[in-house]
Amino acid sequence: MSKSSTKTVLITGASSGIGKTTALYLATKGYQVIGTSRDKTRLLDLKNQSDVNGNQVDVEELDINSETSVTRTIHNVKNKYGHIDVLVNNAAYGLWGPAQTFSMKELRSQFDTNFFGTFHMCKTILPYMLQRKTGTIINISSVLGKISTPFNGGYAATKFALEGLSEAMRFELWPFGIRVVLVEP
Fold first, then answer.
1. Which one of 15, 37, 50, 166 is the catalytic residue?
2. Which among 63, 71, 105, 163 is least surrounded, fewest beta carbons within 10 Å?
3. Contact 58, 14 (CB under 8 A)
4. Taking the complete model, does pTM exceed 0.70, yes or no?
5. Catalytic-residue membership of 159
6. CA 183, 10, 21 angle in degrees (round to 5)?
7. How far is 86 from 64, CA to CA, in rounded Å?
8. Of the listed 37, 50, 141, 142, which one is catalytic?
9. 133 catalytic, yes or no?
10. Out of 7, 31, 50, 155, which one is annotated catalytic?
């Protein structure tokens, strides 16, 4: 890709798993990748691995549960790179066990990260994408967003909610040049 056509991708939860693998893969394909995590030290391995591979992945601290952090990071990335073409909402965690054992605080925390944090990322980045009339939001869900299993009720509930929101936003934003994609590993 030429510098002028290089797409900028912001990935939440890039310190491990799907987020880290996605960041490393997209960097090999010529994308400008910014990997984020709430703890920047957890991104050191991603940064080192991308450097060893001869690619560049930039890293930023981002806590999707903090409105200040989300606003600041998106603003900083947009200012540094000019635009954000793709947002990969990957940050999430699992709350496992019998549903009746969850405290309200635990379940709210699960929703704060897996659903409301993702929604806030979308809401904050959308004005920039709408202004450019282009962009892609990729929400990482799960097969548990379609069918739950025992001891996964809390996590599945957040992914069911994310699926519903993503499906609605896909139709709402398509006329404005914004794609919303669900990935259901």
1. 15
2. 105
3. no
4. yes
5. yes
6. 60
7. 16
8. 141
9. no
10. 155
